[in-house]
Amino acid sequence: MKQKSADGGETPDAVDARLGTRLAELRAERGWSLGELAERSGVSRSTLSRAERAEISPTASLLNRLCHVYGRTMSQLLSEVESAPALLVRTAEQPVWEDRSAGFVRRSVSPPHAGLRGEIVEGRLAAGADIAYDRPPVPGLEQHIWVLEGEVEVTVQEVEHLLGAGDCLRMRVWGPTRFRCAGSEAVRYVLAVVLP
Question: What global pTM score does this model have?
């Protein structure tokens, strides 16, 4: 998300700026050029460059592709641009990230923490939202999706699962997944993630 600067121009959101810096660091740590990262991720060089310079706010799909290349979950990547999480995470301290173009809001209720393999995320999809991930950020990632409100259609390994309030889908993610808000109202769910 962009904010207006004093001269009327747009400045990057603080989280987007830190995220861009971290993405550039991860690429530099591996000694990859933008071209090499583009080949590995399937994302254009110009989009990668703009994301690293915080000229764009990355979408969930873009971050998922980069997380796959860097061997991280999205929560791990986002936690690297926030201050170190404490053992007790108060509501006001839970990092929130939004992909407005996709109608997706993600709250890291229990962010990744050293020594812990699990994390908890609250997801909200607006009515009609449809997010497809072409690969898991980490192959074999264990996920548990528990729907709190609304309905969501989750496609895993080409099998569609329609989940209503109270339903829980358990899976290991090896390939593409898709989350679609199947109802006329927004859906809110809990995603528990466990690293393999």
Answer: 0.66
